[in-house]
Amino acid sequence: MDDFSYLKLASRQIDFDNFDDRLLMYVLEYEPSFLTCISCGGCTATCSAGNLTNFNVRKIGLWLRRGETGKLSEEIEKCMFCGKCTLVCPRDINIRNVILLIKKRISMLKTENEKASWKI
Amino acid sequence: MVVKLYAQLKEDVRLAEGLQACMNCGICTAICPAAEYYEYDPRSIAITVQSGNEEKIAALLKSDTIWYCGQCMSCKTRCPRNNCPGLIISVLRKLSQETGAFTESRMGRQQYLIMKTIGANILRFGYCVHPTVLKPENHPEQGPVWKWVFENKHDVYDSVGANLDGDGPGAMRKIAETDLSELLKIFKVSNGIKLYETIEHFSQIKAVKMGLVDQNGGADMEKYTQYLLQEV
Amino acid sequence: MAEQIWKNTRSIYYRKFKMEESKTKIKWSEYNKEIADDHFFYLRSCIRQNFNPGAEKVFLSILQKNLNKDIFDDPHHTTCSGIGYHSDIVPFETFQTMVARQFSLMGERGYKNCAVSCITSFGGYNEVLSTWKDYPEELAKARENLRKATGREFEIPENLSHACDIIYKFRNEIARQSGYRLINRETGEPLKVVDHIGCHYAKIFPEKGVGGSEYSRVLTGMIEAWGGQTVDYPERRHCCGFGFRHYLVKNNRGYSISNSRKKFVSMEPYRPDAILTNCPGCNMFLDRWQYTLAQMEGKTYGGGTNGIPVLSHEELAGLVLGYDPWKDLGLQMHQVDVEPLLKKIGVAYDPKQKFAGKNGKYINKPLFTGCINQNIPV
Amino acid sequence: MIKNKHVAVIGGGIAGMETASVLSNQGLKVTLIEKQPVTGGKLNDWDQLFPDFSSSETLVTRQNSKTSHSGVNVVYNTEINRIEKINGRFELSDERDVKIFADAVVVASGFRVFDATLKEEYGYGLFGNVITSVDFERQMKKYGKLLTAQGTEPKRVAIIHCVGSRDAKVGNTYCSKVCCITGIKQAIEINQKLPDCEVFCFYMDLRLYGSKFDTLYLTAQKQHKIQFIRGRLSEAAEKPDKSLQIKAEDTLQGRPLRMNVDMIILLVGMEPGPSNSRLIQNNKMALDENGFLKSANIHDARNCTTQEGIFMAGTAICPMPVNETLENARSAATEVIHFFENKKNDGRF
Prior knowledge:
The complex is a heterotetramer.
Chain A: E1 14-15, H1 22-30, H2 42-46, H3 57-65, H4 69-75, H5 84-88, H6 95-112, H7 115-118
Helix pairs in contact in A: 1-6
Chain B: H1 5-11, H2 13-18, H3 27-31, H4 33-37, H5 42-51, H6 54-62, H7 74-78, H8 85-99, H9 106-109, H10 111-125, H11 143-151, H12 153-159, H13 177-189, H14 192-209, H15 221-230
Helix pairs in contact in B: 5-8, 10-13, 10-14
Chain C: H1 2-23, E1 40-43, H2 46-51, H3 53-66, E2 71-73, H4 82-86, H5 92-108, E3 113-116, H6 119-134, H7 136-150, E4 159-162, H8 163-169, H9 171-177, E5 192-196, H10 199-202, H11 220-225, E6 229-230, H12 245-248, H13 253-267, E7 274-277, H14 280-297, E8 310-312, H15 313-320, H16 339-345
Parallel strand pairs in C: 1-2, 1-3, 3-4, 5-6, 5-7, 7-8
Helix pairs in contact in C: 3-15, 5-7, 6-7, 13-14
């Protein structure tokens, strides 16, 4: 039989119907101010880590809202927790806390061994 | 004097047709078949070209990005500003080939393969596609029926009333030498042959750079072809 | 003389027209394009004549014998090089000159209307004509190139129609002559047919398609005129995934199959009896990819081991008009068996003749047909 | 002097009523001409107004009583097709050749709602669960909540901005100004009535220019969990269960996005009124590049048409919300009085 493995491509389309919002719900429970993010990018512009790496705080927020736990668990490690993002946010969101919460929940997951079901 | 890349893009009449003014809405990316399966975003292509930024355009010309578009032109139908990102891509690809930048990306380098197959078919058969060159081993997805057609082509085409390699009209008829020579002359006067030669020229340079050389140190294009076929 | 006036005024007029056009609110569902009535110059398709030569033969026959029209099949015409153009190895300048040569042959034979078999060519001709209207310098260059290369001159065609436009135009006449309806013989229910319109039919120039681009009527009009039922499905307008350079390079074919798969997944719940296409590439890909996907996934999207039969407008018209599925239409060249559809319609056919050569000559058989080899489990 | 002057106001929507009652209160003779059997115009169909969720009906009732108290003569069921200046006065006529003579005219003929069937790819008119923002208002007025075509409560709704606005494909390149805030208002209303329903707004830019508009945006996010996705809707298609598959780009990520929703609401824009092209025929009025009535000067003679003695008010000039329409109508009245008091052209046009 022919080997058709060369034909397999992964879809990049964001599929809202298969969207895992558990991490988002956790963050919103403790930091409801995150609801008001308008993706302006003020945080990214001032970000200490972002000036040294390709870390993008605005995208952290987006990925959180799109249930992309896998991407988050890697990216989040680049944050230096300087807190400048929180200072500049026009919606007064405690972004530093949002990132801390993401980190905390993900490390809890790792110990809880839930990883498999979370697609990290 | 170095002509700016953006100025060169604008020389092609298709750029004005493809890019009037983009307002960054993403309606094109939403339904783009390539955006779903590749790291590709036609909206950002339009925005980059619109910016006229030389560095960014130069980077695009060397990138895989411009080779992801499948030219379905679905973007044209939807754009609220009557732009056509697919047409912008055609212009970028043209410049990428003319400047040799295409050999800097994996997807771009494939132009050599296409020129050697479809490009050669056009001048050899007068058709883009011909059953003698559609070998089942290179087209396993074509399935057992095509394999049967290929292996019994004269009988099969004959049985359905086609005129494979025959004189006169009909499906898959042989194109007369006089017509083929007109095609070749058209390719000569309209820069078609020049483009084939350009692709060949830059591909050879790339092959040498990659160490794919023959005993005399010249480009070994057979090795290069094999390399491209494997490259993923 | 008319040509001269066209040349002098068209550019200014057209620019103005384009601006006004964008102000005009077009109700596409009510839009009709102009399709010539008779005297066509036929332009073949590289892909169709290669994979479905019977479709082109039957198209000529339907026009000449069933509809009593004049259509000329000129042995001198060639590829338009459109596949090369869209995979970027043929410059736009060369493509324009190739198109100009086809027009020159047309004029030489005394024809003014093109009947185009291929959707890529059809879109390409329209792109070239639109460019010549907008940029007279491009037209002048094409004239100069063609003259220099071949000594030929050419005229702009009066009408450019795709073969499916012509079948659409005469769909009711075909229905009157047809011996078969797209109705399930056993249940009396109309057959469910999904359409797939080739992207370059109307996505680039909606005004060149019957009913525009979003809900083109060109294929649904045929289905309904011949008794069938059309089915709308979410990915109806999505590209089949040919992608020119993507199919041509083996390592890129994942793009092609992934996009076709999207369509099959989307149409599966409607359980269509057939897929109707107007583009030679789509017709071939939607047939072949069903086989490949079944080999990869172990299932088909049409239930069973066969898949959903894929037919082009010429093939479906030929079937309802009673042309022989094998000798005339060459439907044995499809991977997905068309027999389930033939049985539903009630088309008479001889199964023994399917893979027979001319005059019944034995020429072997494919290893298997349909999507899954029933003798070897996947 | 002014007391003897007769002003004809074309259009009995809120703009026409406001201008007419102000002029009448100033002692002028005013005839308000309405094509429908009732005044109130499009607001008769609206449920609640942004940004304060006040009742549209209450506003129309107030306008109606103000109009009748001020002594405006209202003519119903009459659609003016022709305005011609004859012997220094204006002759207005409808297709039955009913004639009304006036010393000045105010055109307050309003706008036309964009016909969403022109955006075929959104499936309005084809799919039962694709509705417009106008349909939404009617539904809210009738049933008090949003229901799908199948009569169920939707679990997920997408609100689509810029339908028929900022779109060269349908010939409208301008912004309709009111849609963004209407979308946010409607999103909040859905959440209030159906708290379990997820609401998404697909936008290109959120043009929330009004002083209270951005606050409403914040409220929508904070209290009503409305989600905003930056990307213009490319297509909607019906699935076998009558829900809708929609596609847009999440432009902030640069990735295509697909979503299944129970309903979509198209925020349809404002188009030039259908009578504009007829009204300008027999006088010096003109249309602007978008087909609305052209102002003599968009800064300080916005209510003056290019025909001396013919004025205009409200959305006949350009898209505007209710409160601006009323202000604009009062300023039109001022222009009329100015015209009668001082016929000199002060250089504005």
